Amino acid sequence: MKRIQKVFFMMTNKRLSCLVVTVALTVMLGAVPAFGGHPLITDDTGTQGKGKTQIELTGQYDHDDEKGVKSENWEAKAALSYGLFDSLDLVLETPYSWTSTKDSERTIRNNGPADLSFAMKWRFFEDEGLSFALKPSVTIPTGDEDKGLGNGRSSYGITTIATYAKDPWAFHFNLGITHNDYKLPADEDANRRDIWSASFATELQVAKRVRLVANVGMERNSDVESDTHPAFSLGGVIYSLTENIDIDAGVKWGINGPEPDISFLAGLAFRF
Prior knowledge:
Elements: H1 2-26, E1 53-66, E2 69-85, E3 88-93, E4 96-102, E5 107-113, E6 116-127, E7 130-140, E8 155-166, E9 169-179, H2 185-190, E10 194-207, E11 210-219, E12 231-242, E13 245-254, E14 262-271
């Protein structure tokens, strides 16, 4: 019996390893919180727990039409989050993008992997439903900056996270800062380097397997010629197929011009 269990365990690990490698090469990797998660943009203080892993596959479509320029963007991600300790997660994220920009004269299309990022989420305080966490991160320039899929140089940032949970509600607040460096002189001239962001999210458990989520947020506009900062609102639902498998969907609206007019999001998360 022990030998059979050992063989089964090795086969299972091999299949999981193949799945992770396949995902990394095809739809890329990213990180997911244990409380809220996709389709929320706002992170939460939840971690996976020591020795536990979560993988999330997500997709997003953005549409924007401004001043005669039509932009469409598809992005696929896979999210890998590993619990190094009960209150500390290591996170890997690499998106893959397809972009299309069309004006009256031409259409420009590009696709490829964007910049890979590593992060660490540390929940340092937790008491009676209130918790706080820090999430430092760094990006590696794996995207093609000539196609607009990356910066060409590493960037780094940190996000402070607060969560308050009291059944059936949970509330999350993020405040972050990111420092970007650019390889191309044109990007250096056109973009701000330091970008702040702030967002708030709430979720409501309406049934044993169903959570409704809402999200609003804003970040500093990277365009040096604009002082209008992109802002969004989002609504969605998370459905738990089992204790360890979630599916989700959401719609995100741009509150002002710099944000895409509308985005559609969907995801699948599984834990082991």
